[in-house]
Write a structure and sequence with these properties.
The chain starts with a helix and ends with a helix. Helix 13 packs antiparallel against helix 14 and helix 14 packs antiparallel against helix 16. The N terminus and C terminus are likely disordered. By secondary structure, the chain is mainly alpha-helical. It is built from 17 helices and no strands.
Length: 351
């Protein structure tokens, strides 16, 4: 009873913390600009429907991992050789056709099941950057060398993030990275087998109940976090003119790569839409290094991507995610510039 009371209190506090401010903002926006509010709600609904084929399997798999106790086995498997786990997670993330928002339920479920932060961080950082379809479109728009560089950057940023998270694995905040705010389910073990794992969860009433609770908790998390993220994306599209970025990142200079990360990433709209925009910026004088930094950082740490993650991760793991994304994006841009041949210009301007 005490545990149920604490859980109920956590859920209520979570709704007060995240739901009430969102409702206030929505009502204020509706009173200020009703047409914009209607178009924003429509965009959010369409976006959620668009990613549903990817998100729903992630929600179901996440719930099954927690209900069956598979998370414990996954944790033991990954802890046996974390180096291989980080490399594998980075490689799989670099070719997996899911964006950072769509992978949110699966990554949250793995963390709540006790999976170490390092391989989760590796996959979380590498997965939004590119995928087979994005590779083909990037090669067509910006060239095959750029598409290959972007894929290598995805693998590299995942490897870098996973390695740093592994080095910090002794810290308490990396061992318990999820918030306790009523949006994320409380970690727990499997429910039916004495060994803590039962594949056929439908045969046990307790497991079925936990599976249903996990599906509800993860669906609520996705609706709130991704709903807010898509709303921010739509409002940014309405208020920001992409041509305005040319003033900051449209010319090659010693600040091109940092500006592409710190100015371009927050204004990053969509992976496919960003490609012709980047082509246009390069025609205006943007260096290939800055273009790489812009696309990598925008994929990983855009405003709506960060908004979706912030309610899930505690402050320190969230800041770690941001710092790894920024540092990895800077490294990707400068490394590609050096390999591409314009690194001399970038470095000499700073001397």
């Amino acid at each position: 009873m005490q545990e149920q009371a604490r859980t109920a209190k956590t859920v209520v506090s979570g709704w007060v913390l995240w739901g009430v401010p969102g409702l206030v903002v929505l009502l204020g926006l509706a009173a200020w600009q009703p047409q914009l509010t209607a178009s924003t709600l429509t965009y959010v609904g369409e976006s959620l429907l668009r990613i549903a084929p990817i998100v729903i399997p992630g929600v179901i798999l996440s719930a099954w991992v927690n209900a069956s106790g598979a998370g414990g086995r996954v944790t033991r498997l990954l802890e046996a050789n974390r180096a291989i786990a980080i490399v594998t997670a980075s490689a799989v993330g670099a070719v997996t056709p899911v964006c950072g928002a769509a992978v949110l339920p699966l990554m949250t479920g793995l963390l709540s099941a006790g999976v170490p932060l390092a391989p989760v961080m590796a996959f979380w950082l590498s997965s939004p950057v590119t995928d087979p379809a994005m590779f083909a479109v990037t090669a067509t728009t910006l060239g095959t060398a750029f598409a290959i560089g972007k894929t290598v950057a995805a693998f590299g940023i995942g490897l870098f993030g996973g390695a740093v998270a592994f080095l910090l694995s002794g810290s308490t905040w990396t061992q318990n990275p999820l918030r306790r705010n009523g949006l994320v389910s409380v970690p727990g073990s499997g429910c039916a087998s004495p060994a803590g794992f039962d594949l056929a969860i439908w045969r046990d009433r307790e497991c079925r109940g936990r599976f249903a609770r996990e599906v509800w908790a993860m669906s609520r998390l996705v609706a709130i976090c991704l709903g807010l993220a898509f709303a921010a994306e739509h409002l940014l599209q309405q208020w920001l003119q992409p041509q305005a970025l040319a003033t900051y990142v449209g010319h090659d200079s010693r600040w091109a790569v940092p500006l592409a990360v710190f100015v371009g990433a927050p204004a990053y709209l969509d992976g496919y839409a960003a490609l012709p925009l980047t082509r246009g910026l390069m025609d205006l004088g943007m260096s290939p290094a800055a273009a790489m930094a812009f696309l990598v950082s925008g994929s990983v740490v855009s405003i709506w991507g960060a908004m979706a993650i912030f309610p899930v991760l505690r402050l320190k793991p969230f800041l770690l995610f941001l710092m790894l994304a920024v540092a990895g994006s800077l490294a990707a841009g400068w490394s590609y510039g050096l390999l591409y041949g314009d690194g001399t210009t970038i470095l000499s301007d700073g001397l």
